[in-house]
Amino acid sequence: MKPNKNVRRLGSLQLMLLFISVMGFGQYDPYLSGRAYMHAGMYDSAQFHLERALEQNPGSSDLYYQLGVAHFTLKNYPDARDAFYETEKRRKGMGSFYLAKSEIRLSHPQQALKYLRTHLSSRYKKSESEILLDEDISTLDGMPGWQELWNEKRWYNSRDKEFQDAMFLKSQGDYLEAINMLNKLEKQGYKTSVVESEKAAIYQELGNTKASRSALKSAVKSDARNLDALQQLALMQLTDGDAEEAVEGLNKVIRQDPARFEAYMQRAEAQSQVGDLSAALSDMELYLAYFPENDSAIYRKGLIQFEHGLYLDAMQSFNRSLALDKSKAEYYFARGRTYAATGTTRYAEKDMSMALDLDPLNGDIWYEKAKLADQLGNIESACYCYQKAFQYGIYEAGEEVNKRCK
Questions:
Q1: 32 in a structural domain
Q2: pLDDT above 90: residue 403
Q3: Which of 78, 112, 190, 273 has the largest count of CB atoms under 10 Å?
Q4: Cα–Cα dist 209/206, whole Å
């Protein structure tokens, strides 16, 4: 499973660029580089870096699995099969579904059925509908051995089917009936962590954040490997002001899956809230080492810098995010606030005007623009902006209208 020469040349170029971007932050990590390129849809480059990671850690089932996904996406089906076979040797069931898909692409239907049987017997088993609707697996229908496989045993029991029914009701917006079915499954002890996670998602849709948070806690307590639930719980804790708990939860997420890149930005915001600016910026720099052109991440870094009074650094971040995307009102608004904080009022007012061109119904922007007009002595403009801010929900602006704009 060695990359061809063209891939090597491309990978070498990407590697040089990546060294440049991460040298200032820390040691180059080929696994994270490979996963980052997968996130970006650049599977040739991902393959190169994952091959390097495999040289350093040849026993990793996860590495083989990710490399297999890269090969499969690139239609390198023999290499994909080999990678998933190595995955399967190290962790039974983990590579079986993709092994079946790879064998189908290689015109080996009987081998595919063999690995599908392994998959159906494993803890990695996908839902029945997901298997039957898969574009590769569905081609086995009618093949010798297909019906025998499904007649061999009941691969899905009645509770599996009830769970899928609950998921269908959820997808249709019938939340109360879905909750009722999930509560029933919970009492029966069926996949507690998964059931609680789905309940949390429904409660969130219904606006019941307290119940959602409670369900997520139950999901994590039942299975500490449920990283989706753990990460979502941390986000709720962050929103509720429990930043220390959020940091602790996100530490666990990143420790178990270092390639959950969004978790680094989330942890940065939590660390910023608890006052650990150095750790917050370190996480942002790590994320940006792998996604240097992500304007949203640069903007979020700027917000952290702004909140800690690093106005010149924040200005540089907002300038970079705007250089990458001039269509976001929040970028102009953030830079305008930064100009205002440094006393550059006219530049600040200009940015507020740009933000309002993009988001004219935003009361916060109108309110900030009103305060800037006040500072510049333009009472008429300030009153107009205060009135607009009040119209769009900023009630403090109404006090200014009553006090100063009669």
A1: no
A2: no
A3: 112
A4: 8
- In angstroms, rounded to a whole number, what is the distance separating the alpha carbons of residues 331 and 326? 8
State the angle between helix axes of 209-222 and 192-205 in degrees (0 to 180), rounded to the nearest 10.
170
Report the b/e string of 34-65 with b at 16+ CB within 10 A. bbbbbeeebbbbbbbbbbbbbeeeeebbbbbb
Q: Using a CB cutoff of 8 Å and minimum separation of 24, what contacts does 398-404 make?
A: 400/370, 404/379
Both 322 and 389 in one domain: the answer is yes
End-to-end Cα, the chain, rounded Å? 77
Joined together, the tokens standing for residue 96 give 């079986």
Position of tokens 């997520």?
216
Number of domains making up the chain: 3
Instruction: For 221-279, write each residue's pLDDT tens digit.
Output: 999 999 999 999 999 999 999 999 999 999 999 999 999 999 999 999 999 999 999 99
Contact 125, 119 (CB under 8 A): yes
CA 316 to each of CA 252, 266, 307, 312, 343: distance values in angstroms, whole numbers, following the listed order: 32, 21, 14, 6, 16
Range of the domain at 232: 224-282
| Residue 102 token pair | 């790879």
Mean pLDDT of the chain: 92
How many alpha carbons fall within 13 Å on the CB side of residue 188?
Answer: 14
Asked if residue 140 belongs to a domain, the reply is: no
- Let me know: does 116 contact 108? Beta carbons within 8 Å: no
